[in-house]
Amino acid sequence: MAAVQALRRGTAPEAVRALVGVRAAEDASLADLRRAERCGARLVVPEDEEWPALPLHPLTLAAYAGGGSERLPDRTTALVPPVALWVRGDAALDATVDRSVAVVGARASTSYGEHVAADLGAQLGERGWTVVSGGAYGIDVAAHRGALAAGAPTVAVLACGVDRAYPAAHSAVFERIVDGGGLLVSEWPPGAAPYRHRFLVRNRIIAGLTRGTVVVEAAARSGAQATARRAAGLGKQVLVVPGPVTSAMSVGCHELLREEDTGARLVTSAAQVVEAVGDLGTDLADPAERPASPRDGLGDFARRVLDACPVRVGVSAERLAAVAGCDPLEAMRVLPALEVAELVQWTGTGWRLAPPPGTRRRAP
Amino acid sequence: MAAVQALRRGTAPEAVRALVGVRAAEDASLADLRRAERCGARLVVPEDEEWPALPLHPLTLAAYAGGGSERLPDRTTALVPPVALWVRGDAALDATVDRSVAVVGARASTSYGEHVAADLGAQLGERGWTVVSGGAYGIDVAAHRGALAAGAPTVAVLACGVDRAYPAAHSAVFERIVDGGGLLVSEWPPGAAPYRHRFLVRNRIIAGLTRGTVVVEAAARSGAQATARRAAGLGKQVLVVPGPVTSAMSVGCHELLREEDTGARLVTSAAQVVEAVGDLGTDLADPAERPASPRDGLGDFARRVLDACPVRVGVSAERLAAVAGCDPLEAMRVLPALEVAELVQWTGTGWRLAPPPGTRRRAP
């Protein structure tokens, strides 16, 4: 309010006036609020209880760190906190984004990327995490849809007014987000158009609201990469899903993983995402699934004797010992255990490998 | 020789005798050498000029670091230098592996992995690097074939005698390796069978001979992972090609990239491999290809004015300035430059975006 008044009176700093330009003369506050009321949106300001002060704090810090210079930083890249957020949806903003992760990526995504994004969205939702994204084509909407499919709230941070569906093809998804306990969020008032520079400005809100950003697919030199670097600059986790090195849509992901200054971590599952952004001790991922093998428990001698066993014709323990490079007594000592484990067979004249399970007939 | 004599006389340490077992009584040195002569193989020992002493030095260091304990370490995992290497092929061993990289991976590889391995093999070969692998199904043979296709020497380190083709299906590839200036290398004498434990023992030679190991595809808990960890243990570079997170054959690769102690680096091209293992300054990879855009050179104001331009109906500079948030004079100052760059058009009544190149008709 004070800022608006300063602008109207012409007492705002020269640099601010230069940026705001001719718009200083326009004031649409009342019209904005009326329009918001019609579409069921509300204006959330820092004084409100639901203001997500904690997640946005790094933006405030970044703004102070960048301050003091003569010229105001480029608006499209400056890390400044939003002065207010327009919100559509019943849930409280702060509670919804408390445990949230951004899932972002290419608009021109591949079916691989969309599959992974939808899967991440669903599994993060099932684990009680809110997926925040930009509502765009490709990875963004796949992540939102995944969360919706899991019946979980999801947040779309838009580069236009929360009453506008951009892209128009996603209007049904946006309605489902609002109906499903999720939120549409924007810095711009209802009715605002999705100008290109607004996407860059908007991206810092996606990074700011969440604990970490997962990049699913990104071309070289893409907006998703920029969002990830911005998240890293705010001290948020940058998590990257790799893809085929033959896919142009994963080049940006692999670049992020090769860069050292973003601290980007490779993730392959929602469990690994939650482990990275979750609270220590409560959100640990299981290690990747590993096939169990009856060979696992074997000692060195037993494994070597087993490896020395022929497939068909049985041979003597002495011969096995010679091949395995151990004492015949040692071989005789481990063979009974291998037989009990159904790994070797006594043919009557010698030892051989037992047939694999399935092809085996049990003795009556 | 001294070791063989000590074993025959029974004066070798107890632990060594326990490991060698009944084979202490067998001596096939002369038969081995005769068999080697028949298949055109030679025995290379540390005293030979072509012994790759420098690459193998970390194995010697590791053996000393692990020494002094009562019990000899498990043979299948111990990092000890080879006592000698059986070699088939005309090239000198040390010169061939001086600039070499191991390319290893799953036997049950996917077509993606084979494509990437063949491509790496060919491009490393073209850059003058020798591809070292194990001659196995899947990634190994794809890498060898890629190098052969580029007319470059490649080295297969076998877990059996250099006169045996294992797997038999690769006998033609092995002959092409020998004929193409490459080498077949083994720790075991001609005629030796490919026992399972020999593959694990062999893997340390692959890691030892090369400057770094590239893992192309690896299942969880796989031999390729073990080779990579072994390479890391020897202070060699571990380089990993990522893949789709939906592929079981890339799980091991992604695990390696998530582990912090191997120092594994993600690579997507031969250029990045060479950069990682090559000599500083001479082997730098180009950055990933980025599409150039006429927007690149634009200043902040110009970009915002451009973004404010409508697609069809032209609007005034004042209107553009209002949308872009700058002074109308500022907008008028940048519009001519945007027009020269063919980014905007004057319709006669206002400014709009220029149609993209290709759809554009030039003025006569």
TrEMBL record, chains A, B:
A GO BP annotation: DNA-mediated transformation
TM segment ranges: none
Residue ranges of domain Smf/DprA SLOG in the record: 80-277
Family: Belongs to the DprA/Smf family.
Protein name, as recorded: DNA processing protein
Record organism: Geodermatophilus obscurus
Lineage, opening ranks: Bacteria, Bacillati, Actinomycetota, Actinomycetes, Geodermatophilales
